[in-house]
Specification:
Length: about 525
């Protein structure tokens, strides 16, 4: 297939470089100091970090703090460290192989499997987009009192924002994302600083104990184990791995010069770890908010509406300073601003990821504005149905339904995650793919397999509870049995698909190794 797409068509065939228009377009200085070089490589990590602090993370962290104080702080730390490891491997794959993760998987597997994995990953992206629609619509409602039905439709207009961004250059997109991250960070630092948290207890929470994964106590419909699963599920998401392996290729370097490649891997890792540290700080602050900003048990409604109302009510806050600021409406307004910033950031990165997986898995491309429009309209439909169905009911029921929709949509992430993390580890462990110098070291292989097995296991054992969530809080015993049955069937399907993927990747890699050996023999 030709590397050049067919012209004058909305949907084009493509099999070229990842992000062809911006691939290898960002210049990096040669022979400059550490900070100057790091600045040139900074940016892709911010695009990735957005996925670790999107609206889907908020309620899990705050509710975890309300229910179990600082107990789950260690889970946020562990999730962030695993994320750093996975994103390091993802950026390294892109830089060294010059393929994004979708292209790398597709190159070693069949067309039929490629289509299946594309559909799974698209569902995961749409699930995150539902959270973005809900977050942005609620933020518009809270800030400007726009009715939810209209606010949902307004979120579709972010396609105009993306059209504008495509005209200003990739470095400026990175800069805008970084600015929005700092807006979110400032809001939560300010609110937590006013709460004067117990620093000793907070830092002690970073040390994991057996209580972290206990099934008792049962508070607010949650145990420490389900709280931990919620935080892990909301933190490590598959689309970030596809995105990072693509955006890491935007820097211009000579791939024949192994020292330049090594420098790119090193500084991309620095960039990623710094930005993911900011994401870790935001998630930790969210949990601290649940503990220190509100009085114990004050947040009865963990939805965005409930949190906004709680930040507006002096009686729910933990000290006089917070209560005084809350009376002015500043705390709740800042919260809504941060929610809107988070939703817009996720919109940008979600659209870019959609482009990566479509081109990588099925070799098709469409304009970025059309891609955004189609995905957003598909995501708007369930949100709009939810809003219309509950419009005649009480405010609490409407808010609860939206919150449940956002949480239940995340079930697709549990399906898709193993199909990104296992191939990523297999690819970066392979000398044929990465070369002797850049394949994973023994310690990275060890930590990688532990992380991958643990994440896959936790996502799968959490499926029954997630499927039960579709039947609501008042589900009958028969409905719960149905939910568990569906969950176990889905687990078997996931395991079968995983076996298919692993076998095809293994065979494809062996075939590639054989071709490499034959090429070396012919050269000799």
């Amino acid at each position: 297939m030709s590397d050049e797409p067919k012209k004058h068509s909305i949907i084009e065939q493509t099999n070229g470089a990842s992000f062809q228009e911006i691939n290898s377009t960002v210049q990096v200085p040669k022979g400059k100091g550490f900070w100057r070089t790091l600045l040139a490589y900074s940016g892709p990590g911010a695009l990735v970090a957005v996925g670790y602090m999107d609206p889907g993370n908020w309620s899990t962290s705050i509710t975890g703090g309300q229910n179990f104080q600082y107990l789950l702080m260690s889970i946020i730390l562990i999730s962030s460290l695993i994320a750093m490891l996975l994103q390091y491997m993802s950026s390294k794959l892109g830089i060294v192989s010059q393929m994004d993760l979708a292209q790398a998987i597709r190159a070693r597997t069949s067309k039929s499997l490629g289509i299946v994995l594309w559909v799974l990953t698209e569902l995961a992206i749409m699930a995150t987009d539902i959270a973005e629609v809900i977050g942005a619509a609620i933020a518009l409602y809270l800030l400007f009192n726009i009715p939810l039905v209209y606010a949902v439709f307004i979120t579709v207009l972010d396609v105009l924002l993306l059209l504008l961004l495509t005209k200003i250059g990739f470095r400026k997109i990175e800069a805008i994302v970084v600015c929005l991250i700092f807006v979110i960070l400032f809001v939560f630092v300010y609110q937590v600083a006013l709460s004067k948290p117990d620093l000793g207890a907070m830092f002690a929470g970073f040390i994991p104990t057996m209580d972290t994964f206990s099934q008792t106590p049962h508070i607010g419909g949650q145990t420490p184990l389900t709280g931990s699963l919620g935080i892990i599920g909301a933190t490590v998401m598959p689309h970030n791995l596809y995105l990072h392996s693509a955006v890491s290729q935007t820097r211009k370097l000579d791939h024949d010069n192994k020292e330049e490649v090594a420098q790119a891997v090193r500084f991309s890792t620095w960039d990623s770890n710094i930005q993911l540290s900011l994401a870790f700080l935001v998630n930790a602050l969210l949990l601290v908010m649940g503990v220190a900003v509100f009085k114990d048990g004050a947040v009865q409604d963990p939805s965005f509406f409930g949190l906004y109302e709680a930040l507006s009510d002096p009686n729910t806050l933990s000290n006089g300073v917070l209560s005084q600021v809350a009376s002015s409406g500043l705390l709740s307004t800042l919260f809504a601003v941060a929610l809107l910033a988070s939703g817009q950031n996720s919109t940008i990165t979600g659209t870019l990821t959609g482009q990566v997986i479509m081109e990588g898995f099925i070799h098709m491309r469409m304009p970025i504005w059309l891609r955004r429009l189609v995905t957003r309209l598909l995501s708007v439909v369930p949100v709009l149905i939810c809003v219309l169905i509950t419009s005649g009911k009480s405010t609490v029921e409407e808010h609860t339904a939206l919150n449940n929709l956002m949480n239940n949509s995340q079930v697709f992430l549990a399906f898709a995650l193993p199909f990104s993390i296992i191939p990523l580890l297999m690819m970066t462990n392979s000398q044929a793919e990465m070369g002797k110098r850049f394949r994973n070291s023994t310690i990275v292989k060890f930590l990688g397999w532990i992380s991958v097995i643990a994440l896959t296991y936790l996502n799968l054992i959490g499926l029954p509870d997630q499927i039960e969530g579709f039947f609501g809080a008042q589900a009958t015993r028969q409905e719960l049995l149905w939910a568990d049955g569906i969950a176990y069937v889905l687990i078997l399907v996931v395991l079968a698909l995983l076996a298919w993927t692993i076998i095809e990747l293994y065979k494809g890699n062996k075939k590639f190794e054989q071709l490499q050996k034959e090429g070396m023999n012919n050269d000799g």
